[in-house]
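Issue: ligand-bound run for adenosine-5'-diphosphate - logging full I/O for the record.

Environment: standard queue, default settings, no custom constraints.

Inputs:
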Amino acid sequence: MSPFLEASPLVQARGLSRIYSAGGWFSAAPPVAAVGKVDLAVERGEMLAIVGESGCGKSTLGRLLLGLEPASTGEVRFEGRSLRGLPAREQRALRARMQLVFQNPMAALDPRLPVGIQVVEPLAIHRSLAAGANRPAIEQLFSAVGLSVELAGRFPHQLSGGQRQRVVIARALATQPDFVVFDEPVSALDVSVQAQIIALIRGLQRERGFAGVFISHDLRVVRHIADRVAVMYLGRIVEEGPVASVLAAPAHPYTQALVASVPRLKRAPGGARLRLKGDPPSASAIPPGCAFHPRCAAAEAVCRGERPALHATAPGRSSACHFSALRKPAAPPFESMRL
Ligand code: ADP
Ligand code: MG
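Outputs:
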């Protein structure tokens, strides 16, 4: 392997965009820019969180990174090689090394099959494992995710929500992937179960060393699971950096509002819950200039006319605000906000 390839991140996106053109019933509707010009890198063994409000493009970005849907512009590289135009055989091999765990385990599992069989399905697909050889693999995978192997004969509806998500995680790990995208994997679970699944994912990641992207709308979850965080707003990354540093001192006004909205992360002035002002954003009508400017009380003329690029504000930190590097507001410039 050349030094260049060795030095390249495990997963790298360059200028990655996804535009959905509205069709069918809504053919008069404008196209939706779900993801716009995203550059990001995931290093081996690290967990990158992607946070932002519903509809900001997190799931689309996750699918793009896995090559599960085509990019409108830009590209994704895995170990330095573009996913675009790979021969089918290499695509299949790569599929096994990149996995997706999403929010709803009921939708991910086949209701008619015992969960044990489903956990080793990727092995049968990817490695043509003989049927009789499944038992040790099922035992090993169930044990890795803290499930009793006695549950292997059950059907999905006979398990709890937390157990089902453990099954889905076990299945994603069956092929020993190098890269896993977790798309809001705990959002549908009770709070008490959420903490267990987060601890499980963190433990598995440390043990097995895979790299991950953890998608969430909840900063509290992100703090416990990720090394770095990328904050998205209307399809673009507006801030990125080590999770502890970003949460302690957010540079972008949008991140400041998100942080301020979580009482335990940072108490809002006067103890009030903060809320962003203005209308909720729509990916089919992205404001010109800085897309966040209509909701930002600190916006000035330049913000309405010029889109700020994501730029370094400190070592390892970047922000896409015209004023990030120049000033820090004394208090978040928002009335209040609820996620
Ligand atoms: P998030 O996961 O952050 O909630 P999504 O990636 O699901 O956001 O969606 C981003 C935007 O793209 C939304 O406006 C959504 O309606 C739109 N979108 C997502 N998938 C499609 C699709 N297949 N066709 C058309 N629009 C889509
Ligand atoms: Mg989503």
